[in-house]
Amino acid sequence: MCIKADRVRRLDHLGGDLFWGDLPIHGRWNIRGTWLGLLDLDWITRGAMAAKKKKQNDDRRIICENRRARHDYHVLDTLEAGIVLAGSEVKSLRAGKAHLTDAYVRIEHGEMWLVNAHIAIYEQANRYNHESRATRKLLVKRSEIENWHRRIREKGLTGVPLKMYFKGSWVKVQIALVQGKAEYDKRHALREKQDKREMQRAMRDRQRD
Hints:
By secondary structure, this protein is an alpha+beta fold. It folds into 2 domains: 2-55, no CATH class; 61-181, Small Protein B, Chain: A (Beta Barrel). The chain is 34% helix and 38% strand. It is built from 5 helices and 14 strands. The strands form 3 sheets. It has a 7-stranded antiparallel sheet with strand order 6-13-14-7-12-10-9. A 5-stranded antiparallel sheet has the order 1-5-4-3-2. The chain is globular, with a radius of gyration of 25 Å. Residues 1-17 have low confidence and may be disordered.
């Protein structure tokens, strides 16, 4: 890629790096005063991915999380699933009245189900209310269901929900394929968590001083 000298600015305080607008480029000057270089595609790609991830996160509103799952299991794979809900369930979720503590994922007859997730009864629904711990269908591609089913059978893995959230106006569930931790792993994870808290506390105390 050839870029005229008047299109390039040099930033000496950044070690002489060259930029085209805000994009870093690498190369050399030729005798005609033209910079022969390439845009830093890694920089562009990283920026685009970060912007995309930020946009996705901005669209999400967390309803509830299964924090215990990461303590009890090694997370091997994750998947975003849609979920079939009644109107009263959606209204209850908008109020944040749900938890995933004892919930798990079951695959049966080629379909995926969320079992034992608690969505509180919506009082204003009266006789049209839902069961708080109903088994709810998850909406996942058939190929993904078959892949997870095979791995669960062959490797003795388990499916659990990690979090439930609104993505725009839709309710989504992040589910995970997990393997149980040994007691040593749980103790090690707990120790790391305690060490992190102590480090953060020490840093706060140092800032106050």
